[in-house]
From TrEMBL:
Name the UniProt record assigns to this protein: TIGR03915 family putative DNA repair protein
Residue intervals of the DUF4130 domain: 83-250
NCBIfam families: SAM_7_link_chp
Species assigned in the record: Flavobacterium humidisoli
Domain of life (superkingdom): Bacteria
InterPro entries hit by this protein: DNA_repair_put (IPR023875), DUF4130 (IPR025404)
Length: 258
C-alpha cells in the first residue's frame, strides 16, 4: 500500500493522479500533509503540486466527459466526504480506462458516489448564497461567518462579487479557518483565526454603532412576516437546517435581551 501525501488542494490531488500513473503506484491511500500519519507497512509518495501535470489530467478528463461530468469532479472534491480522494481516483481511473462516456453507469459505486458528492456540494453552495448574513464593521467592511459542511467558498465567490460589487466584504469559513475578501476590485483568499462563537463584547468593539439596530430591525421583520397559523416547523427546518442557525441573524436572540 502506498500513502500519497499532497497539500490538500485540488491541483495537488490532480498532480497526485498524474504521478500515480507516472510511477505506476498501486493500492494508494491519500493523505493531506498536515494531518498525515505514516501507515504501517506502507510506502510514502510525496507530491509537489505541479500545474503542468494537473492540467494534463484535467485535459484528459475534459475530453472524455460532458461539461457537467467534468465539473462534477471538482464539486465532489469540495464535498470533503470521507475517502473522497480515493473515490475520485477510482472514478478517474474508470474514465481513462473506458472508450465510452461512463457518467451514466450508476452500477459502478465510484460513479454513483461522485454524483452524490457533487450534488451535496452543489446543494450546500446554493444554500450559502441565501444564508450568508453580513455585519458592518466600524471601518466599513461587511463580514459574514459561515460553517458549511462542504468547502464552498470557491463556488460562491463570483456570486457575491457580482452582487456586492460596490462594497468591501469578507466571508469567513470558521470550520476551515480561511475566507474570501473583496477589496472593490479583486477577490483574494485570506487565512485567519476567527471563531463563530466570538464574544459579543468583541463584536461590539469592531461593529458599526448602528449594526445592533439593523440586526434587531431584521429580526423584527422576520417575525412579522411569519404567520403563526401557517407555521410548519418540519418544512422550515428542511429548507433552513438547524446547523446554520448560529450564524443567521434572525435566529440569534435579540441583542437587547442578552
Amino acid at each position: 500500500m502506498t500513502q500519497i501525501l499532497y497539500d490538500g488542494s485540488y491541483e495537488g490531488w490532480l498532480t497526485a493522479i498524474f504521478e500515480i500513473y507516472e510511477y505506476k503506484l498501486k493500492d494508494v491511500v491519500f493523505a493531506k500533509e498536515e494531518t498525515s500519519n505514516t501507515l504501517l507497512f506502507s510506502n510514502t509518495h510525496s507530491v509537489t503540486t505541479d500545474e503542468v501535470k494537473a492540467n494534463r489530467v484535467l485535459n484528459g478528463l475534459q475530453q472524455r466527459l460532458s461539461h457537467h461530468g467534468f465539473h462534477a469532479i471538482y464539486f465532489a472534491f469540495l464535498s470533503e466526504l470521507d475517502q473522497i480522494e480515493e473515490i475520485l481516483f477510482r472514478f478517474t481511473a474508470y474514465v481513462f480506462a473506458s472508450k465510452i462516456n461512463i457518467e451514466r453507469d450508476l452500477s459502478r459505486s465510484e460513479v454513483l458516489n461522485v454524483k452524490k458528492a457533487a450534488h451535496l456540494t452543489g446543494k450546500e453552495s446554493h444554500r450559502m448564497k441565501a444564508f450568508v448574513r453580513f455585519k458592518l464593521t466600524k471601518d466599513g467592511l461587511y463580514y459574514a461567518i459561515i460553517e458549511p459542511d462542504c468547502d464552498i467558498l470557491p463556488l460562491i465567490e463570483q456570486h457575491f462579487k457580482n452582487r456586492y460589487a460596490d462594497q468591501r466584504w469578507l466571508i469567513y469559513d470558521s470550520k476551515r479557518k480561511y475566507g474570501i475578501y473583496y477589496d472593490l476590485e479583486n477577490v483574494s483568499t485570506v487565512e485567519m483565526q476567527f471563531e463563530s462563537n466570538t464574544s459579543s463584547s468583541f463584536l461590539a468593539e469592531i461593529n458599526d454603532e448602528n449594526e445592533e439596530f439593523f440586526e434587531n430591525l431584521w429580526r423584527n421583520y422576520f417575525k412579522s412576516v411569519n404567520i403563526e397559523s401557517r407555521k410548519n416547523t418540519k418544512l422550515h427546518i428542511k429548507h433552513m437546517p438547524k446547523r446554520y442557525w448560529k450564524n443567521l441573524t434572525e435566529k440569534i436572540p435579540n441583542l437587547n435581551k442578552r
